[in-house]
Specification:
This protein has 516 residues and is of the alpha+beta class. 48% of the residues lie in helices and 11% in strands. The chain has 15 helices and nine strands. It has helices spanning 3-20, 29-48, 90-98, 102-107, 110-117, 131-141, 154-162, 165-227, 278-281, 320-326, 337-369, 389-410, 414-432, 441-448, 487-499, and strands spanning 230-235, 238-243, 252-255, 264-276, 286-288, 296-297, 302-314, 469-472, 475-478. Helix 8 packs parallel to helix 12. InterPro entries: ATPase_P-typ_cation-transptr_N, ATPase_P-typ_P_site, ATPase_P-typ_TM_dom_sf, ATPase_P-typ_transduc_dom_A_sf, ATPase_P-type_domA, P_typ_ATPase. One of its GO terms (molecular function) is ATP binding. The chain crosses the membrane at residues 161-182, 194-213, 349-369, 392-425. It holds the Pfam family E1-E2_ATPase.
Length: 516
């Protein structure tokens, strides 16, 4: 501090001391109050007023006169990372794409701003080889899977087989046969007929339930295989094929014609991209996707035209597609046409058997009570009041047992079982030949097929396209004439082919069968 400033401060302090010295003088009370007020005002002004520093270059604007007038500048464009380390939460991302809110997207800085908030490099993608990064994204935003309906247990199929009309009729017959047999022949021999029927019922129910249960398990495996699509993603600057279930929020996905959009996201870049949203909205018209007007891509939709790259913002149950798929239950109990016809035939035969058994029961009861039934000795079995009650009960039991026998014999309980075993065996053999059987009815259909008619274009191919002929200017060039083309022209053609492709190769230079 300079000598001038020091002298000024010294003068102020000396003045304050003189003023404070007035308390020692004999002043009246009123003047003393005025002096006290003057001292307070003067001292406050002296301490609040900064000294004039002429020799030192200090910007006095940086000094604040009062804490109450301090201005703090806050940049609200910079968001604070949440507990998971990202600058945006899942709720905001989900609502952004579901509502297709362009205003909110602009507030976030567009797709580039969202990518920055998700710590994603739009050119090189995420660090796919870093397990901690993948795990952190799964914990923050979830995985690209959805809840499936609970699997049906074995006893569910047992109960379904038990509710069959034929089985119920046989159970009734088994109960009657057991009761009447034990009553007539005793426990030692009377249980044989009824026990045989029960054993047959248990066998039919067990085989049917086991077959349906194994079919359900096989269907779940096939469903997982068919839904496990391979998606091309950019991770650590390299395109690679990953499972659709391994996609996480922040991934950069490459899309082309025919691909299914694996998750909700935002378009990063592309050309002439249009999608078919009929699976979500029911509208068959294709929707144009552009960075400025409509950059939103919904999970489950199909790429109808063009190509592009998208930034994944929501996966799994945070998408409309995941919510919808989690509510769909796969019905594996659908019967094949042959099974349906055989069940109908079995039911018809059973009804006829019941009618015949009821008719036989009625006729035999009428003959018995009218005295037209005789025993082994030729005497009448019913003589009115002379017949004992036990003899009447035994005779009625024998008549009912005969009717039950007719019903048991008439119902072909082994027919549906034979068909089920045949179809299960056929399915197993076809799976051994790497044939994916989605429906058992396909076994019946293919068993009757003699000729397979297919489209000649694009159906049975090796997924390899070769050029056999092309036009160079006004001249047609075929395979034999390619050597006559100038090397400069060939270089231009190769560059044009390389630029007009979505194919890629890995770092080692090996070709990848992908793109178009």
């Amino acid at each position: 501090m300079s000598s001038t400033s020091a002298s000024n401060l010294h003068a102020k302090v000396w003045s304050i001391e003189l003023i404070l010295d007035v308390r020692n003088k004999s002043l009246n009370v009123q003047k003393r109050k005025w002096h006290s007020a003057f001292v307070a005002i003067y001292c406050s002004r002296a301490f609040l007023k900064p000294p004039v520093l002429k020799d030192i270059n200090i910007n006095t604007k940086l000094l604040s006169r009062s804490p109450s007038h301090t201005t703090i500048s806050v940049d609200d464009s910079v968001s604070v990372p949440d507990a998971n380390g990202f600058r945006i939460d899942q709720t905001r991302l989900t609502e952004l794409v579901k509502a297709k809110d362009l205003n909110q997207l602009h507030e976030l800085g567009g797709a580039q701003g969202v990518a920055k908030a998700l710590e994603t490099d739009v050119e090189h993608g995420i660090h796919g080889e870093d397990a901690e990064d993948i795990l952190k994204r799964i914990e923050a935003f979830g995985s690209n899977t959805y809840k499936r309906p609970p699997k049906k247990g074995f006893f569910h199929f047992v109960w379904e087989a038990f509710k069959d009309l034929t089985i119920l009729i046989l159970l009734g017959c088994a109960a009657l046969s057991l009761g009447f047999g034990i009553k007539e022949h005793g426990l030692k021999e009377g249980w044989i007929d009824g026990g045989s029927i029960c054993l047959a019922i248990i066998l039919v129910i067990s085989v049917s339930a086991i077959s349906n249960y194994r079919q359900s398990i096989q269907f779940d495996k096939l469903s997982k295989v068919s839904n496990n699509l391979q998606i091309e993603a950019v991770r650590k600057g390299r395109r690679q094929q990953i499972s659709i279930f391994d996609i996480v929020v922040g991934d950069v996905i490459c899309l082309k014609i025919g691909d299914q959009v694996p998750a909700d996201g935002l378009l990063q870049d592309g050309h002439s991209l249009s999608v078919d949203e009929s699976s979500m909205t029911g509208e068959s018209d294709h929707v144009e996707i552009s960075i400025t007007q409509n950059p939103f891509l919904l999970s489950g939709t199909k790429i109808a035209d063009g190509y592009g790259r998208m930034l994944v913002t929501s996966v799994g149950m945070n998408t409309n597609w995941g919510e919808m798929m989690s509510k769909i239950s796969q019905d594996t109990s659908e019967k094949t046409p042959l099974q349906a016809r055989l069940d109908k035939l079995t039911s018809s035969i059973g009804k006829v058997g019941l009618a015949v058994a009821f008719l036989v029961l009625s006729v035999m009861l009428v003959r018995y009570f009218t005295g037209n039934t005789v025993d082994e000795n030729g005497s009448k079995m019913f003589n009115g009041s002379k017949t004992k009650v036990d003899d009447i009960i035994n005779a009625i039991i024998g008549i009912v047992a005969a009717a039950v026998t007719i019903v048991v014999v008439a119902i072909p309980e082994g027919l549906p079982l034979a068909v089920t075993l045949t179809l299960a065996y056929s399915m197993k053999r076809m799976m051994a030949d790497n044939a994916m059987v989605r429906k058992l009815s396909a076994c019946e259909t293919m068993g009757s097929a003699t000729t397979i008619c297919t489209d000649k274009t694009g159906t049975l191919t090796m997924n390899q396209m070769k050029v056999t002929k092309f036009w160079l200017g006004k001249e047609s060039v075929e395979k034999e004439a390619y050597s006559s083309i100038s090397p400069c022209v060939l270089d231009f053609i190769q560059e044009g082919v390389a630029l007009n492709t979505t194919g890629s190769s890995n770092r080692k230079g090996y070709s990848i069968m992908g793109g178009s």
